[in-house]
Amino acid sequence: MNLRLFVLVRSVQILITFFIIMTLLFVLFRLAPGDPVAFLTDPQMTEEEVALLSQQFGLDQPLHRQYLLYVWNFIRGEFGISFYYHRPVVEILKDRLPKTALLFTTATILYAFAGITWGKILAWKRGSLLDTSVSLFGLLTHTFFLPWLALILIWIFAYHLGWFPLNAMISPEIWLDPESGWLRKGLDILHHMVLPLAVLFLTHFGGYTLVMRSTMLETLREDYILTARAKGLPEKVIRNRHAAPNAALPVVTSLGLSLAFSINGGAITETIFSWPGLGRELVFSVSNSDYPLAQASFLLIAAFVLVSNLIVDIIYAYLDPRIRY
Amino acid sequence: MHHSSRGSSTSYRARLMWGLFGGLCLLGILLGPYPAQGELLKVGLLDEPKTLNPFAVKDIWAAKVLMSCYQRLYYRDYRSNKLIPWLAAGDPVWDPEDLTVTFRLREARWDDGSSFTAEDVIFTAGVIMKFRLPRYWNNWSFVEKIEALDPQTVRIWLKKPMAILWERTLTTFVVEKSKWEPLVQRAEEALYKALGAKEARGRALRVALAKPLEILTSFPNERPESLGPFTFQQWRKGSFIFLKRNENFFAKDMTFHGAPVGPYVDGILFKVFGNMDTAVLALKKGSIDYLWWGIESGYLDDLKKDPKIQIFSTLKSGYRYLAFNLRRPPLSDRVFRQAVAYLVDKDFLVQRILHGQAVTLDTVVPPDNTFYFNPHTPTYGKGLAWPERVKRARELLLRAGYRWAVEPLGGKIPGQFMTKGEGLTMPDGRPVKKMHLLTPPADYDAQRAQAGNMIQQWLRGFGIPIQWRPMSFGAMIKRVRAQQDFDMFVSGWGALGSDPDYLRSFFHSRSDRPKGRNSGGYHNPEFDNLADIQAETMDLQERRKIVLRLQEILMEDLPYIPLYVPINLEGVRKDRFRGWIQMTGGIGNLWSFLCIKPMK
Fold this sequence. Notes:
By secondary structure, chain A is an all-alpha fold. Chain A is built from 15 helices and no strands.
């Protein structure tokens, strides 16, 4: 099968999968307990007003009608109006997505890069003190309960030492100051990113390091490495050019998926650091039965994951010339 | 040789990492200290507003921000708890013959410099009435028309007298006509397109209103206009909202209770926190001066130890209650409900489960509503020891014809039974079947869940076969409201407001329908009649008498057993501002923002 045909077949598969996910999402939200209108009303509203709200959000329609409308709207690129924000869901996602992507994509790139580099070094120095200590450290931080770690870092570095801000993405004091230039504002965002990045880095880099270390160890036992040594190639070249690229293949798969999932943000990380991203919105929309917002958020994640899977498949062919479709 | 090369690359990386870490720490030091912003009141919120459109607002966070911008005709005085003229220049003049109410307006200016006039009031009312705006329409549905007698005088004609006019209609916010007119015109066009010149009612009208309402409520209004003490300056989504002092505020330097009002702060900076932990740390650190949310008891001891923090405790405007499904025997029997009331030890719940952070309640109007609260309703077992409570409940049921195989006998310790009741039968001889007590789960409201557990123990020991079943709040509401498939549940009402007309909505037999508020199916013609009369009684004292009587009826019939009113605990930095004002619900109110002064 040539690449073009492969991409075509996979695209059709992705479309079918996406449609199934879409339907499942619709059904799951309606099966979940809770009436969205119940969340929107207060004791002073009359029943007529409640009926008007149901009508406004199309919740008084039979389920099959609601479903057909949902699919039809999706085909037209409309995701509906959020029950709470009263704004088109697309606008809300557009506002939240870049903030989540900034934090989580940066974090993913950082810990994946560090993981691959350290995994490579540790496998090369197998059995050394460095190998033992870094592996143990990675394993330890990987098992940390994320909310606990986040709160401890906030408590030490933000509350006691005052080196970093306690919450959010920007400091009002800097952004309200008319003398603040873009550099100061940019640095401010970076300043706010340090603690959440540290938490994400610490809890994730161990996983990448250990996977890379083990695949690297397997690769180092391959015949072609022995051949490379026999040819008299420098150790650095064998490690970096011959072993590492092959050992990194499973890590790349994992990285592709991590990048895709990074757009959903970490609801917990975003909540603890008051980061105004998609993860927090997702939790809010699900817990308040804001169907349009919750559905659109999940569909966005599903689309990213499916497309990244395809991209990872294609990248594989470039990384490993032996792979044919 | 390669060893040395690897060693140098590792140490290079280590140096790079340490350099990066050092750089970031330096960044922190360079960026702080923050520039001074004058005497800003920094307020912590646990979420940000979803919209700042006053016609669409549903969330409390938006209400907190908009309170300082959109003003009302009448406002509640913090001492007398009565409505006083705010945008209105004097008390409303009621004409019972013509069914009209007339009031004059104060001289005031919007933050864009234009004058506030009767046109703004009439426009706002017109939008609510024309589009039947959910949440506000009920307060205006009985209004025939509203007109300006002159630019500063407004008259409202009513179709029929309605008492909520005072507390609800005349406390509606006012928007600036010139700003909203183009949007409202678009909504009107959409309504005309849907309806034409036809009259529509019921579902047809609701269908026609969907699009106009969408136009009206989807406007994000990211820069609300202001007549209030602060003007809206900036909203950075997810981070902060900044309001600046309005130098042209109409009530500035007006005197209330012998003191001129401010505001004395330069502005309000609302900071958004995603969770209570960091918000509490921010309060301790001084990043915020006031956390505008009830502090959970777990943080209390730590905050009380901090000499820079002051804790205010205020009763909430709402209550928790135990409700019955009156359609099912034996819950349909008033005597049975009264027996249950004897067994529910509210003092125990407040002291042991809520650690004293609540007060017991024996009526369905919370005590902060001093005018309508009835402190003399019938009570059941109040102040009695546990064995006496059990005895009274047992005797009550025996007199009504209920029988046990083994009669219950209360022990000395509250909740303990010397002999547990068994084999309870109803007066017709049928056994009392197993029932369920629904509560929200502990992670939603631990106190309500624990109260449910305690009530289960008390009733079981007495011989009432009951099973406590915590379930998600949404699922519980669906079971209770939509399906009416329940025996008993523990729930609560919050933000009830000061007009007691909600009693009609909760207990009138008209509200007994699927999704109606009278989910327990309470029917009492005397109640229905009096509830309808109070709704149309414009004389406050007359109405008060009826509302007090309604509470007596309800506490005799017991469709609800009111349990307790929770206390709201709020924390402020006492080294920053003084003069906070406690009102219903807490210190987060307009009066506080008008009266607090910097410590320096």
